[in-house]
Amino acid sequence: MHTKTLNVKGMTCGHCKMSVEGALNGLDGVSTAEVDLNSGKVKVEYDETKITLESMKEAVEDQGYDVA
Ligand code: 9UX
After folding, report:
1. Structural domains in the chain plus CATH codes
2. Is 6 exposed, middle or buried (0-12, 13-18, 19+ CB in 10 A)?
3. N- to C-terminal Cα distance for the chain?
4. Counting runs of H as helices and runs of E as strands, what totals does the chain give?
5. Residue 68's pLDDT band (boundaries 50, 70, 90)?
6. Which tens digit of pLDDT belongs to each residue from 34-46?
7. Whose CA is nearest to atom 3 of ligand 1?
8. What separation in Å is there between the alpha carbon of 32 and the centre of ligand 1?
9. Ligand 1, from 9, 16, 19, 61: best to mutate by most atoms within 8 Å of Cβ?
10. Predicted TM-score of the model (pTM)
11. Which protein residues are within 6 Å of ligand 1, measured from CB?
12. Which of 2, 6, 7, 30 could be disulfide-bonded to 68 (CB atoms 3.0-4.6 Å)?
């Protein structure tokens, strides 16, 4: 299991947090995703044999946020 932190722009309210966490947690290979609204950081714990960082970035972007 790997842990990485994504820097996401534009998350400001609790619904943003839910959308991003929901999108990531729904992906096969992601075990946990946690958004910190104050810092804009998203901590993801994932199985690198099942999912790439790029796929996770895309899932966040599909929700309408920019990933640095
Ligand atoms: Mo809240 Mo987030 O009204 O894009 S859902 S700011």
Report:
1. 2-67 (3.30.70.100)
2. buried
3. 22
4. 2, 4
5. very high
6. 999 999 999 999 9
7. 13
8. 21
9. 16
10. 0.95
11. 12-13, 15-16
12. 7
Query: Which pLDDT score, from 0 to 100, does residue 43 have?
Result: 98
Q: What is the pLDDT of residues 41-67, one digit of tens each?
A: 999 999 999 999 999 999 999 999 999
Q: Which bin fits 29, alpha (ψ -120 to 50), beta or left (φ > 0)?
A: left
Q: What is the mean pLDDT of residues 2-21?
A: 97
Structure tokens at 39: 């810092």
3-state secondary structure of 61: helix
